[in-house]
Amino acid sequence: MHAAIYDAVNAIARTHEPYLVRLTGVPRHASKQAASAAAAHAVLAALYPAFHTSLDDELQQSLTQIPAGKDKDEGMFIGQTVADCILALRSNDGANAQPIPYVFGGAPGDYQSTPPNFPSQPQFTHWSHVTPFALERANQFLPGPPPALTGDTYSEALNEIKSLGTTDSTTATADEELTGRFWNGAIQNYWNEITQTAALDRDLTIAQSARLFALLNLALADGVIAFYDAKYTYNFWRPVTAIRAADSDNNPDTIADPNWLPEVGKTPLTHPIPGLMRS
Fold first, then answer.
1. pTM for the full model?
2. Which CATH class is domain 99-279?
3. What does the pLDDT average to over 241-248?
């Protein structure tokens, strides 16, 4: 959505290079607000058809704040045109592909289904095959592998999670609990709220705001693609599995707790093990 908003607004403002769509002959007087609203609506309506009616209402509320006339009409046309192009360019990006069937491992360190629900399949097993928005490939910045189960780095990390992340932790400080609860939420929502606050505080223009939100959300989208690529590259077990099965890791500094459960919201590792914090 934000890619379409940016390219639509930038087609009028012409302040930066476009992301994907370069239009020619665009009048400079066209309404950037109308272009932004139309682009956002077109993308959201295409991706979420069940919400088409409410999205139509939201669009009309936005458009009523823009004076009627040629500038408004041209802005709406530009927004719709750019959105259609973006949707067409992303139509075969792999996001709608069927998830890849996953086979759980049984050896120490292998990712296994987790309590309390023990799902039959993990999520987004196909997401590393989605075409990135800016990255050259999903594994362009693949992190290094998890540490050896028998090493100090692993035992220190596991014991930190075991102590701070349990449902009845007596070691996590109030600040750690608050921080954990905050970052356990929908991170993309938080960053967009933070960005909105920054944009308003700095009185950014609509062109500046469109670019800022596009940069943020394209980075977030690619971060998720790279995130799942790393997860399914290493297939490392989750903390709950690691702690419950610690007697199988051949590490003398870890002790199994067969009843351990995480408390959603506790702070994660200071230095997270790649793949350990599987969602």
1. 0.88
2. mainly alpha
3. 97
